[in-house]
UniProtKB/TrEMBL annotation:
Species of provenance: Nostocoides vanveenii
SUPFAM superfamilies: P-loop containing nucleoside triphosphate hydrolases
Assigned keywords, A-Z: ATP-binding, Kinase, Nucleotide-binding, Transferase
Protein name: Gluconokinase
Assigned protein family: Belongs to the gluconokinase GntK/GntV family.
Phylogenetic lineage: Bacteria, Bacillati, Actinomycetota, Actinomycetes, Micrococcales
Coiled coil: none
Entry keyword annotation includes Kinase: yes
Length: 188
């Protein structure tokens, strides 16, 4: 786990849980939002049909495909400036994260990082999801880890969800609580 000082400590933070497909963004993001008592959104729900069709066909999105999607996500974050929020979003490149930060300087990033084989196994085990295993390698190839000047924390995605959420809450300065959630990929 690597840390940089949080930009805006406390439960009203804007947090983006980021990483490659299958790293546990949705599970961790939802648990973190519940823990912080703030709204939650999954970036997958903001993709236009054309993006979903492209990914479903095994074709990676390019920056042109992502631009309107990222703009909508940044707008959603700006709309939650007062209340705080958690967004699960791949945010694989620095310039994507910069777009999410536009007008949202206090955004904290939680990079869920880990082993490619674990991700491939998780993606293969998700029935009905539009992201095929064939795109896992392109996700890792595109990934640009958080840089030293980006506010956030990098955490091993293979830790239990409780531990990840507790570490993020501590990073944000939120009071500690004990949670009982399963490891990512385990049945609830």
């Amino acid at each position: 786990m690597t840390n940089s000082p949080p930009a805006s400590p406390g439960p009203a933070a804007l947090v983006v849980v980021m990483g490659v497909s299958g790293c546990g963004k949705t599970t961790v993001g939802a648990a973190l939002a519940q823990r912080l008592k703030v709204p939650y959104a999954d970036a997958d729900d903001f993709h236009p049909e054309a993006n979903i069709a492209k990914m479903s066909a095994g074709i990676p999105l390019d920056d042109q495909d992502r631009a309107p999607w990222l703009s909508a996500l940044a707008q959603w974050l700006r709309g939650h400036h007062e209340t705080g929020a958690v967004l699960a979003c791949s945010a694989l490149k620095r310039n994507y994260r910069d777009l999410l930060r536009e007008g949202n300087d206090e955004v904290e990033f939680v990079h869920l990082h880990g082993d490619r084989e674990v991700v491939a196994r998780r993606v293969a085990g998700r029935p009905g999801h539009f992201m095929p295993v064939a795109l896992v390698d392109s996700q890792f190839a595109t990934l640009e880890p958080l840089e030293a000047d980006e506010s956030g924390v990098t955490i091993d995605f293979d830790l239990p969800v409780d531990d990840i959420v507790a570490a993020v809450a501590t990073h944000l300065g939120a009071p500690a609580v004990i949670l009982t959630t399963p490891r990512i990929g385990e049945a609830k």
